[in-house]
Every structure is written in structure tokens, then in C-alpha cells.
Amino acid sequence: MEHLESHPLFAGVEPGVLQGVLEQADRLEIAKGETIYQPKRFRRCLGVLLQGQVQVRREQLLVSVLEQGDVFGAAALFQMAQQYPTTLKALTPCTVLLIPQDQVRKLLHESGAFAENYVVYLSGRIHFLSRRLDTMCASSSQIRLAQYLLTAQDEKGDVTLSATQLCQRIAVGRATLYRAFEALEEEGLITRDGKTIHITDVRRLGTYANL
Question: Containing domain of residue 159, as a range?
């Protein structure tokens, strides 16, 4: 109740209604590295991340990193698609609350506050995805390099690839790749040692890449 009562999505929802929903929700403890949702394995629930960090990817593209309080799963509600659009993987140990679709419908019917909050949330998602589409269409080699490094990094923040392989992955020429390297190094976002690229500040690199 404490988590939800202070959450923007549930602001103003009557305590009795919220308590009834919680009684039907599932609280899960997710281990680091475990996949929460993937295209062919998901639940028609609205998820709230109560603790931890979750990586959201669509194939090789890093879409975002969810933090405490973030919501996921709306794409699985109220539609008949048989696949979820992204893969959600725990970057740290996580606690997740899953609210079943029928309970979300109950909230929409019984709480005007929740209905308005939910519309605000969905509108925010539309704006976020629109910005991500703009980023994907951007021609900046630095942004493309930053996005790829964030997607491909290992647990130490390293990516090990030859220049030729990296050029192929982000579809740029070698000269353009080296200019992108220099730009990120000047910003203090990466260092290089032979074929290994080390991300020195994941959060700042994510901001640089508009993620």
C-alpha cells in the first residue's frame, strides 16, 4: 500500500478500491539476470517495479532502463496480440507487482482518479516512443555508437569488437567510427584499450544517447 499510495498512477484512488486490487495482485522477487517479459512469455498484467532496475530491449535495440516506480506491461493489456513487443531483463535483484488485467479494468471503472492517471501515463509513453523514434532516425554516428555500446556491454561495462565488426553493427565507415570514438572519449564517456571499449559512466552515456 505504501508504494502504491505514493505512486502517480494511483494518486487519489480510494484506499478500499486499492486494497481490493492488491489482494488480487502478485508480488514477485526477480533475480538479477532473469527475464521478466519476453515476446512469447508474458502475462496480461500491469507491472509496477517496486525495487531494482530492468533493461527493456527490442531485439538488439536498447529501449530504456526501468527504475523503481516505473510501470510496464500496458502493451499486453486490452489487445489480442500473441507477442509482447519487448524483452524485460532484471539488471539487479528486483521486486515486481503484477496487477491482472481484470483488476486494471476494475480500477478504470471504479476510480475516476486512476482512469485519468492512466491516460496521463499512456500519453507520456506516446511522447517517449516518439522521441525514441526520432533518435533511431538520427544520423549522428556518436549517438548510434553510444546506443550500441549500451546494448552490447557486459557486466563490467565493456564491449570487445574489432573496428570492422563495429562498423558493420552500426552501419558507418571506419573514419566515421573513429570520429565517433573521439567524440565520446572527449566527453569522458568511454575509454579504449585495443578492441575493448569501456563505458566509464553508463548513466551519462544513456543521457547522451537520448535513452
Answer: 139-208
